[in-house]
User: What shape does this take?
Amino acid sequence: MRLSTRQFNLLAITTLLAVLAHAGRLPLWLTAVLVLIAPLRMLSRSRGGKPISAWWRVPMVAVLFAAIILHYGNFFGREPGSALACGLLMLKLLESERIRDALAALGFSAFVLMSALLSTQTISFTLVLCASLILLLASLNSLQPAPMDPVRPLRGELRTGAILFVLGLPMAVAAFLF
Assistant: This one.
């Protein structure tokens, strides 16, 4: 099933926020390129554009790998690994057209969000990531096959995401403490 415009836009914004969580630690050139991908893909899709073909995506992945090796010297370590994860996440957005693709991208977005905590664990940064997580949960909720109201406002999706977040909070606190 093809993603609706709303579902795709939620996916794009969620992946963008996951990458922006790493913006302070990524090279400026990589951050600039990655931040441009989401709005350009949203614009292309709104004008009826199709996903980027594999003939373009495969060379883009090769260029990403080469650029990371040139910048960091290897793939190993927190910084090059974060850069690679962010780059691959945004490249996944270029091919996302179906619910299956969106679920994979959102799962990867959750991983990228979590990995941002490897570098910074301040309470303010954690709260920003929690807000991003609520948007991620709202995006997942929008992909459910039988929503109660197919034209439900975005406010309803965000409210459901916040409720899911609050319901999971006690388990997260318990896992952190014990």
Q: What stands out?
A: DSSP finds seven helices and no strands in the chain. The radius of gyration is 17 Å. Helices lie at 5-20, 28-46, 54-72, 78-95, 99-116, 123-142, 154-177. Residues 154-177 form the longest helix (24 residues).
